[in-house]
Specification:
Elements lengths: L1 E2 L21 H21 L8 H39 L2 E13 L13 H19 L8 E11 L2 E12 L3 H9 L9 E2 L5 E11 L2 H4 L8 E5 L6 E4 L13 E7 L4 E11 L9 E5 L9 E5 L2 E2 L6 E3 L4 E7 L8 E10 L5 E5 L3 E4 L11 E8 L4 E12 L13 E4 L2 E3 L1 E3 L2 E4 L4 E8 L7 E10 L7 E3 L5 E3 L25 E3 L5 E3 L14 H4 L7 E3 L5 E3 L24 E2 L6 E2 L5 E2 L48 E6 L3 E8 L4 E4 L17 E5 L13 E10 L13 E5 L26 E6 L14 E7 L2 H7 L9 E5 L5 E2 L8 E6 L3 E10 L10 E5 L4 H8 L2
Parallel strand pairs: 7-9, 17-19
Antiparallel strand pairs: 1-45, 2-4, 2-6, 3-4, 5-6, 8-16, 9-15, 10-13, 10-14, 10-16, 11-12, 11-15, 18-26, 19-25, 20-23, 20-24, 20-26, 21-22, 21-25, 27-28, 29-30, 31-32, 33-35, 34-35, 36-37, 36-39, 37-38, 38-41, 39-40, 40-41, 42-43, 42-46, 43-44, 44-48, 46-47, 47-48
Helix pairs in contact: 1-2
Bound molecules: 4-(aminomethyl)benzoic acid.
Length: 864
């Protein structure tokens, strides 16, 4: 596989807020309702008028009427007043429970080990004193003091002493804002300083308070799983969720791990296994804090779902503490995580003065996630007769929802411009021989940072012998005006004169004529596809024909290839054609690719039969690390064929417990002699060729190999074979079969597919140790034929790649899978790696065996 792209035992007490907010203040409401009862009594008194005396009644009628109205009015008024008072005391002025977490920095006393243990008498003494100091600080603030209910000191760490606390307040609603403001600005007051026994004074230097992390106050949970761990010099300490790996973590739990290191050290924490409930399914998550208070403002990361072990899940603290918190809900339970941590000396400064012609530098601890609260400056100076430039090869400074134009949180600043987010390789030029790069990380949410190179260039010629892109990148002059965007900002494709073999797009770009009307928007403005032969009110079929728009989805195949009836949003039973999906009951459907899409489209449901395939347990989460290495379990159908002599020689794909699909040419040697299948070993569940004894790997011999009878070893037509394993493999998270596409299954031009393998990472190069993955696109068959020797491309082949070059399968990938992610998150085997003209050459796509075309043969041979 080749991707030539440029590097594009102190328990921690956490406060449980009371669930209901009842208070004595409610009682005052009742008082007023008693008054209402009194009034009812008054009204009842009216009923005792002597109704027998009609005259009297008549005479006194108007007076009585007025009195009655007056009484009703008074009653109404009183009830209104009572209602208002009830609302005022019960709702408007009802007290709210507020909890703040924070820490205080104390000076004037040294940290001792006993302070790490919340059960020690020393802890209790200091906690008592600190609590008094904090309450003294509150006392000086009228927006805080009257509402304070309770404070607890929960932990201490070095520096000189940092005390972590929570405070609870009961505050009327209309005072909440003032309390929030006051707590955000809470200041240590001198009066909080306390004379200690004897000669010296312990003083509060700073106090910070944050509202409790909303993630932890949502629900009451069992928090019996709390642990305190201290790193040992030169030793890696590991910890796991309770029960891991034999049983699932507890439900409705809040587990905490307090991680500590020696003073002047920082902690490196890595999750080596991480398998929680998927993020979109439940509410289980892990949060890591760069402090011992679980406050959002110091959260480094929030993780859920599962990650393969090759993800970069390493985090570095800014001081000698970290807090790891696991929150779980009532539903589904998963294995959990295993993590390890160790201490490292705290770097005194990051950044450097760099004086050389060229060199490299990177964000602190790269590729681990950088610590929060960093400010580093690299002052780069190249020889005076040259100018300086910096190229960022990897750049990950992303936080969700952060505006990329202002970069208010983490950023890199060069030439007074701030850069943040996730970026492909980019270059920044200086107009002098100096350039300085500043890196800033704020106090929360970290990413994996950047790696960069600095270089010098000639003032008058930034790219000797090459074309200088506006991005600062240097590319070969031959790449200018060739229709491909090599500069990434397309500056190599601007102001071009189109050659004979090119056409001009409406937006001015020149593109190869053979891309005209190929079903892909190559111009970027659609102009190469807009003016294709079809007249007005016509649509283009996948086969290039034009039909009137009114004929789309009319139940008839007007195109001749069925593409006008493919995606009509309904499933009709239609007359069977070569391109219509046939159910087991012989009914044919108008719907394209109905198999295993989660909808029962056939009346006999046969399109959803045999769909225990194409699913993976480890799919990519949000990006954690760039690169093209696969993750364990990401491609659970990938097989590696080995012989004793050659080691890995070909890939294959698991289609059932007993059968794999590969390329016919894999079973012949360089002299086209058949390989003896008894010499071949198949490895399933493998990620790293150097780690074949890994417990996830299952190894089998081959019982037999069946090559396609029409395989042509000159043209590689019908380049397919199936092999039966010596005994069935066991399916698990790392070993799963792929789905096979029906003969009618369409992988349209432009669709992106994934090819995987341990093949060479460059033409004539060495194979990869870690399974590589590469995203490539289906290329129009006609375009492909015009790029290759036309007769070489048969209907049993599909062309897939990137015509710009640089991305391709290569030697050693042969026989391996080309897969497509389809509806219902199901993956299908679209192709088998077959051949190509070299690897990753421009305009020379990779050639794959079209599996749908050979589907019937696979079924005949294997029953799958
Ligand atoms: C091979 O020799 C091979 N570029 C596989 C794929 C390609 C080239 C060669 C496609 O196994």
């Amino acid at each position: 596989m080749k991707d030539y792209r440029l590097p594009s035992e102190g328990k921690m007490n956490i406060y449980h807020p009371p669930s209901g907010a009842t208070s004595k203040a409610y009682v005052s409401g009742l008082k007023y309702s008693n008054k209402l009862e009194d009034m009812n009594g008054l009204e009842e008194g009216l009923e005792f008028l002597p109704t027998m005396n009609a005259k009297k009644v008549e005479k006194r009628g108007p007076k009585r009427c007025i009195a009655a109205i007056a009484i009703v009015l008074v009653c109404l008024l009183l009830s209104l007043l009572a209602g208002f008072l009830v609302w005022h005391f019960r709702y408007r002025n009802a007290p709210v429970q507020k909890v703040y977490n924070g820490h205080l920095r104390l000076v004037g006393r040294n940290f001792i080990d006993a302070y790490e243990n919340s059960n020690s008498p020393e802890f209790a003494d200091l906690a008592r004193e600190v609590k008094k100091m904090l309450i003294n600080i509150y006392k000086n603030n009228q927006d805080v003091s009257p509402f304070h209910k309770e404070t607890q000191i929960v932990a201490f760490s070095e520096g000189s002493i940092i005390a972590y606390y929570w405070s609870e307040f009961s505050v009327p609603k209309h005072n909440v804002e003032a309390l929030d403001r006051a707590m955000a600005n809470i200041q240590a007051s001198n009066e909080a300083g306390m004379k200690q026994r004897g000669s010296y004074e312990m003083r509060v230097e700073t106090v910070v308070a944050f509202p409790s992390d909303p993630d932890i106050i949502k629900a009451k949970r069992d928090n019996s799983c709390s642990y305190a761990l201290h790193a040992k010099e030169g030793v890696v300490t590991s910890f796991t969720t309770p029960g891991f790996p034999n049983s699932a973590y507890p439900s409705n739990a809040r587990c905490l791990w307090v991680l500590r290191a020696d003073a002047d050290s920082v902690i490196s924490l890595t999750f080596t296994t991480f398998d929680l409930e998927p993020c979109n399914v439940g509410n289980d998550f892990v949060k890591v804090y760069d402090t011992l208070s679980p406050v959002e403002a110091h959260a480094l990361v929030k993780l859920c779902g599962s990650y393969g072990p090759s993800y970069n899940l390493t985090f570095v603290s800014s001081t000698n503490v970290l807090l790891v918190m696991l929150i779980t809900d009532a539903t589904e339970r998963y294995p959990g995580f295993k993590a390890e941590f160790f201490q490292m000396p705290k770097k005194k400064n990051c950044g450097a003065d760099l004086t050389a012609i060229s060199g490299t530098f990177s964000s602190p601890y790269y590729p681990a996630h950088y610590p929060p609260g960093m400010d580093c400056v690299w002052n780069i100076v190249v020889p005076t007769d040259k100018r300086a430039k910096v190229r960022f090869n990897n750049f990950f400074l992303a936080e969700p929802g952060i505006p990329l134009n202002s970069c208010p949180k983490d950023y890199v600043e060069v030439n007074n411009v701030k850069y943040c987010g996730e970026k492909k390789q980019f270059v920044i030029l200086s107009k002098t021989n100096k350039i300085s790069v500043r890196f800033h990380s704020d106090l929360s949410l970290v990413d994996s940072g950047f790696s960069a190179e600095f270089m010098s260039y000639q003032t008058n010629d930034p790219c000797p012998g090459k074309f200088a892109c506006n991005t600062g990148r240097c590319i070969a002059k031959t790449l200018r005006c060739d229709g491909y965007n090599d500069c990434t900002d397309a500056s190599d494709e601007k102001n071009c004169t189109c050659t004979e073999k090119q056409f001009r797009c409406r937006n001015g770009y020149c593109k190869p004529k053979l891309w005209f009307c190929d079903g892909m928007d190559d111009c970027g403005d659609g102009s190469d596809e807009a003016e294709c032969k079809c007249p007005a009110n016509n649509i283009r079929c996948s086969n290039g024909n034009c039909i009137p728009e009114s004929k789309k989805c009319d139940g008839k195949d007007d195109c001749g290839d069925g593409s006008d009836e493919g995606s009509c949003g309904r499933v009709d039973t239609v007359s069977c054609k070569t391109y219509t999906y046939k159910c087991r009951n012989n009914q044919c459907l108008s719907k394209k690719n109905p198999e295993c899409d989660g909808n029962k489209d056939c009346s006999d449901n046969s399109d959803e039969d045999n769909c225990n395939c194409g699913k993976r347990f480890y799919s990519k989460q949000s990006r954690i690390v760039g690169g093209e290495d696969s993750d364990e379990g990401e491609w659970p159908w990938q097989v590696s064929f080995h012989t004793k002599d050659t080691g890995h020689f070909c890939g294959a794909t698991l289609i059932s417990q007993n059968w794999v699909v590969s390329a016919a040419h894999c079973f012949q040697d360089d002299w086209r002699r058949h390989l003896d299948h008894r010499t071949i070993t198949a490895y399933m569940g493998l990620l790293d060729q150097g780690d074949r004894s890994n417990s996830n790997v299952q190894q089998r011999g081959l019982k037999r190999v069946i090559r396609h009878p029409y395989f042509n070893d000159a043209s590689y037509d019908n380049d397919i074979a199936v092999a039966e394993l010596s005994s069935p493999v066991e399916f698990n998270k790392y070993i799963q079969p792929i789905c096979l596409p029906d003969v009618t299954h369409d992988f349209p031009v432009g669709k992106s597919l994934w090819v995987t393998g341990w093949g060479a990472t460059q033409e004539s190069g060495n194979g990869a140790s870690i399974l590589q993955k590469l995203e490539i696109r289906v290329i129009n068959q006609t375009v492909c034929r015009s790029l290759m020797v036309p007769n070489d491309v048969t209907d049993r082949m599909m062309c897939v790649g990137v015509l710009t070059g640089g991305k391709d399968a290569c030697q050693g990938d042969s026989g391996g899978p080309l897969v497509s992610l389809e509806a219902n998150n199901t993956l299908f085997l679209a192709g088998v790696v077959s051949w190509g003209e070299g690897c990753a050459k421009r305009n020379k796509p990779g050639m794959y065996t079209r599996v749908s075309a050979l589907r019937a043969w696979i079924k005949e041979q294997t029953g799958v």
